[in-house]
Amino acid sequence: MHGARPISQRHRALKRAAPRLSTVGSAGFDIGGIGPAALAIAPDEFANRRRQLMQMAGDDAVMLVAAAPERMRNADAAWPYRQDSDFHYLTGFPEPAAVLALLPGRQHGEAVLFCRERDPVYERWHGESIGTERAVTEFGMDDAFPIEDIDDILPGMIEGRARVYCHFGSVPEFDARLLDWMRRLRQLRGGGVVPKEFVALGHLLHDLRLYKSRAELKLMRASAAVAVDAHLAALQVAVPGRREYEVEAELLRAMRSRGAVSAFAPTVAAGANACVMHYQSNRAVLREGELLLIDAGAELDCYASDISRTFPVGGRYSREQRALYEVVLAAQLAAIDEVRPGLPFNASHTAAVRVLAEGLCQLGLLRGSADAAIADESYKRFFPAKTGHWLGMDVHDVGDYRVGGESRVLEPNMVLTVEPGLYIAPDDYSVAERWRGIGIRIEDDVAVTRDGHEVLTERMPKEAEAIEALLAARSTG
Fold first, then answer.
1. Average predicted confidence (pLDDT) for the chain
2. b/e string for 290-328 if b means 16 or more Cβ within 10 A?
3. CA neighbours within 13 Å on the CB side: how many for 101?
4. Which of 41, 65, 225, 230 is the most buried (most CB within 10 A)?
5. How far apart are CA 240 and CA 314, in angstroms?
6. CA angle 13–17–18, rounded 5-degree value
């Protein structure tokens, strides 16, 4: 409500500075004056990750990680290639058709990569390959062999190891080859020196990925900066009469012009479409008087960002839209306050639910008290989701949310999203018509620091007044 100030004041911290766009340099992107070379993770960091993982697995283990396969969109048209996150985390190697073998204590080198060898005929069609020599000199591998020779070489390296750590089930073709290697070893050696145990690699590796290094946080800040620029660019074209896909196109243009790609398929949801949690159609017309919810993030060198904002297409929130928006914003600010070391992961969700329930009761959308709405979970009719998720190389990043049956305690260098919302279905006849079809989500990326938190996406306005001012100043030409 423009005149009223419900609920949110105890969490409010107004920021009225105009948002600043990142600059674009000749190399493709320049995030706050930081170029691509400064953002790149050094080979030494990848090597340190491999050493940590081998120490955790033990000297009698072998760890095998396959690169992501190339995937076809249709017929012989491939999707743009994106490396497997775990493989990238351990190697930084960007090509498919590769396998990393980590062999603790191996005399001739513990980190062995099997990859494509240089081939002039292949490279004429597909571009330059890295090859085995550069895998060692530039990517820090101890040894490298052509991928074509893996069946002859890798089984001998596995021989004598007690356990195999791998992602069994994620790449069926690799699983089949691994089982074939085991079968061959049993036949050749009588089964006495074949690993007896297959262990899920994620239990070790994903705990490492949960804690972001200084270099990773720098990349995530850069990814967040690109995402903010993309959202700001999208606001400029999101006017009545445009279609959702035109806004999506502007998001993607802004990301690509800064050297990034979209971390996931953007949600651009006008009007009641915003009540669909994972709306993807992006075809509807933007109309005066409706809200537009944009959920989009950038990916930079395999590190993701994730931002949601909801704003009035015509430039000003209606009375009901503003009232619900203020409740969601207050919930988000309360939740962000709970992101600090020593508190459980679910503390932010608990805080958000409390504010949402209070707001819904105050506005008359729920009857009774907030305590009752939380106890009987009636608030879930309007907020069926959780308040956040881990963020990193995957937009829904790896890492356990519960440890020993309890919500995981936050520690420095973890990164998560905070994204409460309210979604009043257009066919919810239990509420007055003026509320129906309003969907609102506000999402930011938050890093846990030693003494609190850092909002990586804070440059993107979210105060209703700031958003309305930004829309009023946009060019409609």
1. 92
2. bbbbbbbbbbbbbbbbbbbbbbbbbbbbbebbbbbbbbb
3. 28
4. 230
5. 7
6. 135
Q: Are 456 and 444 in contact (CB under 8 A)?
A: yes
Q: Report how far apart, in Å, the C-alpha atoms of 59 and of each of 110, 114, 160, 164, 167 are.
A: 10, 21, 11, 11, 19
Report H helices in 394-473.
Answer: 464-473
Per-residue confidence (pLDDT) for residue 4, from 0 to 100: 36
Residue 202 pLDDT grade (very low, low, confident, very high; cuts 50, 70, 90): very high
Contacts of 291 (CB under 8 A, 6+ apart): 270, 271, 274, 310, 311, 312, 313, 317, 321, 438, 439, 440
Asked if residue 260 lies in contact with residue 298, where contact means CB atoms within 8 angstroms, the answer is yes
Distance from the Cα of residue 48 to its chain's centroid: 23
| Angle ∠(315,319,322) on CA atoms, nearest 5 | 65
Alpha-carbon distance of 226 to 260, in angstroms, equals 7
Give, as one character, the DSSP assignment of residue 273.
G
pLDDT of residue 188: 77
Q: What distance in Å separates the CA atoms of residue 82 and residue 254, rounded to the nearest whole number?
A: 20
All domains of the chain in start order, with CATH:
8-23+213-473 (3.90.230.10), 42-208 (3.40.350.10)
The answer for residues whose C-beta is within 8 angstroms of residue 153's C-beta and 6 or more apart is: 114, 145
Confidence class of residue 41 from pLDDT cuts 50, 70 and 90?
A: very high
